[in-house]
Amino acid sequence: MELSYEVKDSYAEIRAAGRLNMVSAPKLREFVADVVASGSSRIVVNLEDTAFMDSSGLGALIGCLKAARQAGGDLRIAAVQPQVKMVLELTSMDRVLTSYASAAEAFEND
Amino acid sequence: MTDALARRSFRDRATPEAIESVHNQLDALWEDASFVPDMDRMTFTTAVIEAAANVVQHAVPESAAPVELGVDISIRQSSLEARVSAFGAARPEGGGMEPRMPGNDAESGRGLALIRALVTTVTFTRQDGTNVWILSRDSTPA
C-alpha cells in the first residue's frame, strides 16, 4: 500500500492506494499518528485507490478515528469503492466512519 | 460433487506476507474463472483473506515448529469453496468460531463474524493436528 498526504486549508488528505490488510494496517496507523502529531487532526482518508479492505484495515481506520478525535479533530473517509463499502455495511461501521463522495466535501460544512 | 473448473493452492509459513501471496493467487484465479460474477468474487475473496489472516494472527504453534498456512480454492459450476488450514497449530479456544460483532469502538474481533456474513456455509474441523476452516459460497454464473 502506498500512503501519501497533503495538507489543505482546513484538513489533511491522506491517500491510501492498494490493499488495506494486516500488512498495511499498522503502516496506516503509524502514518496517521505522524500526521496528527504534526498538527493536523482534521483528516480525510481518500480511499479512491483502495481496492480492498479487511477487518484489520477497518480496525486501523477506527484506531485512526480515535487518535484524530483525541487530538480534538475528526477522521472522515472519501471515495469509497464497492468492496470497502461492503465491509463497512456488513460490520455496521458505515454508521461510525462517515463517508463522503470526495475528499473536498468531507469538511465542507464545518 | 462436480469437478473443479479452476483451482489454486498455497502453503507457506503463516506470516503477514503470506496474506499478500494468497490475495495475488485469488486475483490470478479470477482470470481463469471469468464466469464468476463480480459480486461473488468480491465477497469470496474477502472471506478467504479474513480466514487466512485469522490463522496468521491467532494460530498458536503446537510444537517448536512454526504454523503453516494452507489455502486450497476450488471453483465449481455453482459454488466457490476454500479450505483454509493451520498446519501445526494447537486447537483454537472456542472451536475457532466467535461470530459476534464487537462494539463500535473495537479495533479487532470482526473477522469471523464478517466471514459468516460473506459465505453460505463455514465449518471448522480439526484433522490430524490441523485446524481447517471450509468456506463455501453458492455462485451462479452470470
Verbal overview:
The complex is a heterodimer of chains A (110) and B (142). Chain A has 110 residues and is an alpha/beta fold. Chain A has helices at 25-37, 55-70, 82-90, 103-106, and strands at residues 2-7, 12-20, 42-46, 50-53, 74-78, 99-100. Chain A has a single domain, classed as Transcription Regulator spoIIAA (2-Layer Sandwich). In chain A, a hairpin with a 4-residue loop joins strand 1 (2-7) and strand 2. In chain A, helix 1 runs parallel beside helix 2 (55-70). The model of chain A has no long low-confidence stretch (mean pLDDT 96). Chain B is of the alpha+beta class. Chain B has a single domain (6-138), classed as 2-Layer Sandwich (Heat Shock Protein 90). Helices cover 32% and strands 29% of the residues of chain B. Chain B has three helices and five strands, in the order βααββαββ. In chain B, a hairpin with a 2-residue loop joins strand 4 and strand 5 (130-138). In chain B, helix 1 (16-32) runs antiparallel to helix 2 (38-58) and helix 2 (38-58) runs antiparallel to helix 3 (111-118). The model of chain B has no long low-confidence stretch (mean pLDDT 92). Chains A and B meet through helix 2 and helix 3 of A and helix 1, helix 2 and helix 3 of B.
